[in-house]
Design a protein that fits this description.
- By secondary structure, the chain is an alpha/beta fold.
- It has helices at residues 15-26, 51-60, 62-71, 107-115, 163-168, 245-248, 253-260, 291-294, 303-320, 324-352; strands at 7-11, 30-34, 46-49, 73-74, 77-81, 87-92, 103-106, 123-124, 129-134, 139-143, 148-151, 153-156, 175-187, 196-202, 205-212, 217-225, 267-274, 282-283, 286-288.
- It is 31% helix and 29% strand.
- The chain is built from 10 helices and 19 strands.
């Protein structure tokens, strides 16, 4: 086993980075978690956690999985509707006794459940990464405020625009999937019942989805295919974040009303991106997990789940391997084929369900 005296730094205190920190601390490692924001980033909208994600949490820390079950809705029904509101198909979801459910839950509740299990002194905020260096036996992180960290292993969990990734595989560009996505959360006691996931389609194109996330709230997503202007290329958000009224008008009145009644501060708007599969996810003593390593389309709901799987398996390899280089090589060998398949199939589905 890798020495429990090993010093491990993690860049990014999102769901992947925090979960991995919890697992490594449990194994006795000296873990420092760095976050560029001034406080935990508990913003965001609703999340569909598939059963594989719940299993990855349960294997590592069953208290976290139970808190998430208590915070959201178990998936009960996937229902596909046309733009007149008629039901195309309805697919109930059933579970065996003691089987972990798929969950519909607010991202805020997820991160709070994770942070509850993490010693607060492990997180350092306002820590924006500036550069990385390494020697044969150590990794070194320099931060923009002048701080420096040196340890045995540095892990990049810093998301789709990862700075750590630029150190391992320079020049990776975001791949535009062709659509703008609006997401929001609104108080709702009548439109979307508990445990329901509605999808509005026309032909093969998805226009919107809605699902209940507990606490009398509904998450919605609205999708428009659109080319970026020259000034928008490379940006995460379009210049105009207003939903075009003529597009919204295509939804039935009750679905449209849910979106229109959402406070503007509860709405986020982003271009939809992924990245091409990387040839490697580590270099020396620096490694990537989560979206930093394999950002993908949300069509298979494997984004957050695959980050948790990364954390679970990296922690296991560090526990079972003789040294850190061996652990990283074994982890990469195991995970790359899996995450590449997630990326490939997620992008394929995105192209198939586009409106055009």
């Amino acid at each position: 086993m890798v020495s429990s005296q090993s010093r491990i730094g993690i860049i990014g205190a999102g769901t992947s980075g925090v979960y991995l920190a919890i697992l490594l601390i449990k194994q006795g490692f000296q873990v420092t978690l760095f976050e560029k924001a001034p406080h935990p980033r508990t913003d965001g909208c609703g999340i569909l956690i598939v059963q594989a994600g719940m299993e990855a949490l349960h294997q590592g820390n069953h208290q976290i999985s139970q808190k998430i079950i208590n915070s959201g809705d178990r998936v009960k029904v996937f229902e596909f509707r046309n733009l007149r509101g008629g039901v195309i198909s309805s697919e109930p979801v059933t579970y065996e006794e003691n089987e972990l459910p798929g969950m519909l839950v607010h991202r805020k509740a997820i991160l709070e459940a994770l942070l509850d299990e993490l010693p607060p002194e492990c997180i350092h905020f306002n820590a924006e990464l500036a550069s990385i260096a390494q020697t044969e036996h150590s990794a070194i992180a320099h931060f923009k405020d002048g701080r420096k960290w040196e340890g045995d292993l540095l892990i990049g969990a810093d998301g789709i625009v990862s700075k750590v990734r630029q150190f391992i595989v320079p020049g990776v560009e975001l791949f535009y999937l062709g659509d703008i996505v609006w997401r929001g959360i609104v108080e709702d006691s009548s439109f979307c019942p508990e445990g329901n996931f509605f999808v509005y389609v026309r032909g093969r194109g998805i226009y919107a989805n809605f699902f209940h996330i507990g606490g009398g709230r509904t998450h919605w997503g609205f999708f428009i295919e659109k080319e970026r202007t020259d000034s928008e290329i490379g940006k995460l958000q379009p210049n105009n974040i207003t939903i075009p009224p003529e597009e919204l008008a295509k939804l039935p009145h009750d679905a449209r009303n849910v979106i229109e009644s959402t406070p503007v501060e509860n709405i986020v708007c982003r271009f939809s991106y992924d990245i091409d599969p990387l040839p490697k996810i580590y270099d020396g003593r620096v490694i990537l997990i989560g979206d930093a390593a394999h950002a993908k389309s949300s069509t298979r709901a494997r984004g957050m789940t695959s980050g948790w799987e990364d954390g679970l398996y990296l922690a296991q390899h560090l526990a079972e391997s003789a040294n850190i280089p061996e652990a990283l090589e074994n982890f990469q060998t195991e995970r790359l084929p899996i995450v590449h398949e997630y990326q490939r199939t997620s992008r394929e589905i995105s192209r198939k369900i586009g409106r055009r």
